[in-house]
Here is the input.
Amino acid sequence: MRKRKILSLLLAATLTMSVVLTGCGNSSREAADNASADTGSAVTEEAAPETGETAVPETTEAAEAATATAGFEEGATIGISLPWLGTQNWKEAETMFKEQLEAAGFKALIQAADQKVPQQQQQIESMIENGAKVIVVGPVDGSQLGAVLEQAKDAGIYVIGYDRLLENTTGVDGVVQFGSVKTGELQGQALLDGLAELKGEGPYNIELFGGGPADPNAPNFFTGAMSVLQPKIDDGTLNVVSGQMDFTQCATLDWDNAKAQSRMDSLLSGFYSDQEIDGVLSPNDGIARAIITSCENAGQEIPVVSGLDAENESVEWVWSGRQYSTVAKPTDALVGKTVEIVKSLQAGEGMPATDVITNNGKIDVAIYELPPVVVTKGNAKEAFANDPDRLALLK
Ligand code: BGC
Here is the structure.
């Protein structure tokens, strides 16, 4: 994990330039140094080697500036471009953006792109044409929206990445997300903890799954998990029986649960006809349930499986012991943080200060980061203490 404490001259110059280019003032003020030390210091965003990018984004603790801008009219249109509605978090985002933006007096223009890059490009173009003042984007593919986002910036529109990084573009003002490497670390650690708790003494037979390769979060989740698991593979505690350990071998195209299930079916028939599988790293809850279902169909005892999103069905499975863990990244908090930034922009107060900066391959981007929380049966009541809907599932 790399953490740079020194704000380099280059970074300072880049920030100053972007301030000038976006028409912001230069009234810099220091960000509170350790305001989010827990999350900020725990997270390092890495470039995905398999995407073939040459630039390696680095997370930097930096004194980013809150800057004054012109603002825009109350009641303005805010565009929300989501990648798909295939997992619960994105469906929640659709509902919660509508509720929270309308409550703040804005007009919400919300569209989802069904995992298709050209569809998302067109939807963003139409948000520009419809006079959106801010466009919030959860990209289908982090690196394929460069041109349309730069077009939005040229039209004086603010662009905020939501949940996923916007890569290889100058057309982004900041990104609101949960720590993605940190999320992976929690998943890897939960897998280890579950194996120790439920599967006796090692060594343990495991397999690894990653998310959709176009999603910049997916390689980061995997990197974070492998930072915890690799030492245990190296010392023989964990045995990846298939030998499939590269992200590219483990990724699940489009986060498609059915594809994950058929890969798990093949792994089980190819490598586990005469031995047990003890654990599986899963990047989210839908894929976790697909993996567990595959194991049940193959007559295996259920392995320890990680997850992500605290989807309702998986919260029930965690509570009943069918899925070992999930990671909660509450959508209402992420939407709330985004709407807070939109209000700041509307009021002419510019992008808020932040202490995390990530290079997106083209520019240094301000990251507004929230902490993900691992959930197992052991801490579920506590983790969902403020979430009555999920709490009600624990019965
Ligand atoms: C999100 C996850 C989600 C996945 C698939 C990721 O970018 O962070 O919450 O499960 O996309 O939709």
The pocket of beta-D-glucopyranose is lined by residues 86-87, 89-90, 163-164, 211, 215, 217, 255, 284, 308-309 (CB under 6 Å).
